[in-house]
Queue: 2 jobs
Job 1
Amino acid sequence: MVNVFERTKTQTVKLLATSIKKKRVGILGGTFNPPHLGHLIIADQVADQLDLDEVLFMPDATPPHVDKKLAIDAKDRAKMVAASIHNNPRFHLELSEIMRGGVSYTYDTMLELRRRHPENDYFFIIGGDMVAYLPKWHRIAELQKIVKFVGVRREGYEIKSDFPVIWVDVPLIDVSSTLIRKKIRNHHSIHYLVTPGVEQYIKEHQLYLD
Ligand code: ATP
């Protein structure tokens, strides 16, 4: 006869197994200085074509490749990302790199995300400008075992990589944060290049004027 304790234990295990659902999770890491429509379009296209359950928009803390004088406060960048994605239920803001601080190595971040949700499949989305640098990423061999890389084409960059990347076809969008910052400095319109919430945030906080 199965004792009551054993039966309860079995039921609990079954319950846990059904409540932990394996998800397909995309990650769009970046400086988002500021976030623009290019980010939203690539995230949406990849989510749709790879049937992802969600996409995490993950602003980095100290971007190693960006001149520190140009990168505005992480808090502002995170708020603008939140403003960009708030009306898409599949998009979420992921703050682990900002919370951890220091240089943001994707390997460290992915270990953290994996520890939180070992059941998920992770797809790290990168633009065609970054793919060529993948072999140089910190602990790339180990990182490759825990995420799949998804590449999207970027205007001005050829697709040239021996690295295993899943290529997703997205319309070429010739918008970058650099272009947005330049337009603001020159007092030109950024309307339709960023979401209305981001445009308003930039205006209110007088960002990128010098
Ligand atoms: P900056 O001009 O300051 O370098 P960015 O526009 O490249 O910024 P990031 O936040 O650095 O924006 O980009 C995050 C990720 O999104 C990177 O992998 C980048 O390659 C990709 N990405 C950004 N904009 C586009 C775009 N228009 N088309 C394709 N990929 C893009």
Job 2
Amino acid sequence: RFKAVIFDLDGVITDTAHYHYLAWKELAESQGVHFDHEFNERLKGIDRMGSLDLILASAAHQRQYTPEEKLALADTKNKHYQELISTMSSKDLLPGAVEALDTVRRAGLRIGLASVSKNAFTVLERLGITDKFDYVVDAATIARGKPDPEIFLKAARELGVAPADCLGVEDAVAGVTAIKAAGMFALGIGHPFVLTEADVVITSLKEFNLAAY
Ligand code: G16
Ligand code: MG
């Protein structure tokens, strides 16, 4: 019944969340901010500057940062992150990811990628799956990150499919909200207690069953 499937990248196709965690932790601690896995959960699907704002807002010292200082901090985090992902390869694909992409392809549906990561193209290259997508949104062209529906609506438009005919796949709360706000069917990857807005929640793409949604 769907005409296209639009995938998130981090946490759905590959686990870059761990690399984001390591890079943000070092950056946060350099600013005297305590950073743990629970904090990292809140940053999933949130763009780079938005994530930095959340980290700095939780600092005990509450000092003001200039826009230049913030850009420099974001850049430091990104350089570290890029170093960490430079060794990624197809072994970093999450279980079931390639099978899910191939199932959608065989069913004749269009395939899109909606990641707010400006490193998404690099990650796809490293994973060796760039050619499996009909359209990959360039995060640099997106004005409002998730939970705003902009990125999913752009993917649908470029794929030439109405939002109501799209299935969106997300692991983050902000991402599921974005899919629903776009008027799409939301498949959550994770836990139903967390992804309460999703239409269906599965544990990983290993359980992906296109005919069931
Ligand atoms: C991903 C991650 C976020 C990260 C964002 C921006 O979003 O989940 O934690 O902050 O990308 O990444 P970058 O700093 O590489 O531009 P998504 O939409 O892929 O889940
Ligand atoms: Mg994600």
